[in-house]
Write a structure and sequence with these properties.
Length: 82
């Protein structure tokens, strides 16, 4: 059985396994939504030390968080290489 991609899990794993120690407490999320009930768009923002580092939007809250997590992980991997 193959493991499905989970950007939020990958982001958390990166923060937990960092050489500077567990950094997960520095990550926070903001989520919102807009549109009519039958066509809602969800938005997510990943923040690290209160700084916005990832944005995403999707038809579900999880999809929006996944998009934001991809951006956030790319940013953190550049800023904090292991």
């Amino acid at each position: 059985m193959s493991r499905q991609a989970d950007p939020v899990r990958d982001l958390n794993n990166f923060l937990q396994g960092h050489s500077r120690g567990n950094l997960t407490h520095l990550l926070s999320w903001e989520t919102t939504h807009s549109g009519p009930q039958h066509q809602v768009t969800h938005y997510a923002t990943a923040k690290f030390q209160q700084r916005e580092i990832g944005h995403g939007q999707g038809l579900s809250k999880g999809g929006a968080k996944a998009m934001a997590a991809v951006e956030a992980l790319q940013y953190l991997q550049q800023m904090y290489p292991n």
